[in-house]
């Protein structure tokens, strides 16, 4: 008797096209969002709440590729930051804004979500950020854009500010993406001499999907 194979589960690389930002919205509308864990990653909490780095207790945070916005809310809650999330997907921003409606005023007034192309995003020197988080954004862009990613990070993080990179997924090599193949050393060339590494470790706690597949690296803007 012939057997029928179960339908193959879609992955972002089956939907997203490098030259068409709108396909990220298609992934959101089809609920193909494996990067959305439904909460803040434990590794981010470890970076912010441990005593290894004394982050300023007030300032501005940016999360490119913010998705549902959990990390944006976290920076507003844990550090009291004015926190901005950028995403290329209208659906993602709609989800984040709906969650924002249910936050206490102390958080909703400190958070904002915008549809924006990260590579075209500009702020004045006075508006630069104290912290930028990259979690699953670096691996979402084609490797050919990584140098541009580094230049943009240097332009947006204020001197003395921080770039938190949650390096994930650290898996076997695969040519296609997203997510694209990544190793911690892949950040070195794009960031160049504009940043110095101040923390590099395997997190003490990871979410189930991240166990053995992530590294926490924090950089300070020089």
UniProtKB/TrEMBL annotation:
CDD domains hit by this protein: AdoMet_MTases
GO molecular function, one term: S-adenosylmethionine-dependent methyltransferase activity
One Pfam family hit: TPMT
InterPro entries hit by this protein: SAM-dependent_MTases_sf, TPMT
Cited PROSITE patterns: SAM_MT_TPMT
Keyword Transferase found: yes
Alphabetized UniProt keyword annotations: Methyltransferase, Phosphoprotein, S-adenosyl-L-methionine, Transferase
Single biological process term from Gene Ontology: methylation
Cross-referenced PANTHER family: PTHR32183, THIOL METHYLTRANSFERASE 2-RELATED
Name of protein: Predicted protein
